[in-house]
Design goal:
348 residues; alpha+beta
């Protein structure tokens, strides 16, 4: 008769091999227990640091335990995929896209590939139930990644691994069968370094590893719908979608892994001329970005962000492009266009 402990160890190691063969760069297994950072999450929401991300507040309790995502869950398999690409970029470019969104949409890539791993485990362990999560369910992914040994949570709140750095995206397979767990990553390798905190242009990071989304470029350009605060357009530092500044500043990313990845970057997506976004109709924007994580901002968000950048650049030749949007039905676009127009019109 097979010893059940030996069987668990062997199944865990075969599953990890399978996940790595599917293009992931790291994999580890955490127990399905309460998330370590749940109390911090509650505090973050109490302080209003989630800005307008109401879904974070609405589903906060569900993030306490992975049981809310899968009944009877016993194991959380965490996988990471790198998308780093060469560093640095042209930091003065206007219309910069965060690296994670320069290639295929990672949600799709992860869902599809971890889906194959889940099929494999269900065939291998008949009766096992599981669910794949790629930012698609209330799971504290970074907490479980740390717990699965993939890295530590840095001052910039990113999961950082000594070899991979932090330009990674995460996915999970929740399973209702026990698997041999990996040791958690217990070291904090940030030490006294505060490079990310100093580099953040909007003061969104606090030294104790805390991000205030109300001040974060990534939040305003990706998640926020509608109008933004007056200060944001001049603080975007050229980003049209997302922001990588606190990762670019991190010493662990300088020498991090760079190699084959299913999330390879498309050179044409490093920066997108904001004028071309304003000239494109909805159908064109859809065909340009439907397959990319940038589609999360939808045409409304992309146009608003483009107007912010154009107004802030202050080139009056852009005025005709901007004027087309001053009566737009979308309040975010309309207010950004009116603000940009006021910036570009010659002073009387
Ligand atoms: C909401 C969200 C955002 C928000 C808020 C970000 C934030 N820092 O909270 C905004 C829109 C700003 C954002 C931006 C980005 N995001 Co985002 N985001 C999320 C999401 C959906 C939830 C994160 C969350 O719960 N935040 C609330 C805070 C309070 O929780 P937390 O970040 O998990 O932090 C907890 C732990 O860090 C823990 N903790 C902190 N310190 C310590 C120390 C110890 C010892 C322990 C035990 C625990 C601990 O406590 C915290 C509270 O529980 C996750 C996906 C997911 N489901 O987890 C992706 C996710 C975090 N995002 C991701 C990415 C790629 C980004 C961007 C890089 C995109 C970009 N280039 O613009 C930026 C990075 C900005 C940054 N420095 O974090 C990746 C991060 C991968 C990684 N290697 O860390 C994730 C995991 C998505 C994914 N599936 O890959 N994001
Ligand atoms: S993503 Fe940009 S704005 Fe947000 S905390 Fe990092 S450096 Fe600051």
């Amino acid at each position: 008769m097979t010893n059940p402990v030996v069987a668990q160890v062997s199944l865990a190691s075969k599953l990890k091999e399978k996940v790595l063969s599917l293009g992931f760069h790291q994999v580890g297994i955490a127990p399905a227990v309460e998330a370590d950072g749940f109390a911090r999450l509650q505090e973050w929401i109490r302080e209003g640091a989630h800005a307008g991300m109401e879904y974070m507040a609405r589903h906060a309790l569900a993030r306490r335990h992975p049981e809310s995502v899968l009944n009877g869950v016993k194991s959380v398999v965490m996988a990471a995929m790198s998308y780093r690409g060469p560093l640095p970029d042209d930091e003065h470019a206007i219309g910069k896209v965060a690296r994670y969104a320069r290639g295929p949409d990672y949600h799709e890539t992860i869902r599809e590939r971890l889906g194959h791993a889940l099929e494999w485990i269900v065939e291998t362990s008949p009766g096992a139930k599981g669910r794949v999560v790629a930012d698609t369910a209330p799971l504290m992914e970074r907490d479980f990644a740390r717990r699965a040994g993939l890295g530590w949570i840095g001052r910039n709140t990113m999961l950082i691994n000594p070899r991979m750095g932090s330009f990674t995206v995460l996915g999970a397979i929740l399973l209702d069968i026990p698997l041999t767990e990996d040791a958690p990553f217990i070291h904090d390798r940030c030490g006294s370094c505060t490079a990310c905190v100093k580099a953040c242009p909007t003061g969104a990071l606090a030294p104790h590893g805390w991000l205030d989304a109300r001040k974060c470029i990534s939040y305003w350009t990706i998640e926020h719908r509608g109008e933004g605060p007056d200060w944001i357009p001049d603080q975007l530092k050229g980003w049209i979608f997302g922001c990588d500044i606190c990762q670019e500043a991190c010493p662990w990313n300088r020498k991090a892994f760079i190699g084959e990845t299913p999330l390879g970057q498309d050179a044409g997506m490093m920066a997108i001329d904001p004028g071309s976004i304003l000239e494109a109709d909805d159908a064109t924007l859809r065909s340009m970005f439907r397959e990319s994580a940038m589609w999360r901002a939808r045409p409304q968000g992309l146009r608003r962000n483009a107007l912010w950048l154009i107004g802030s650049r202050g080139d009056s030749r852009d005025l005709p492009k901007v004027c087309r949007f001053v009566d737009d039905p979308d309040s975010g676009i309309r207010s950004a266009a009116r603000w940009a127009k006021s910036r570009l019109e010659p002073v009387q």
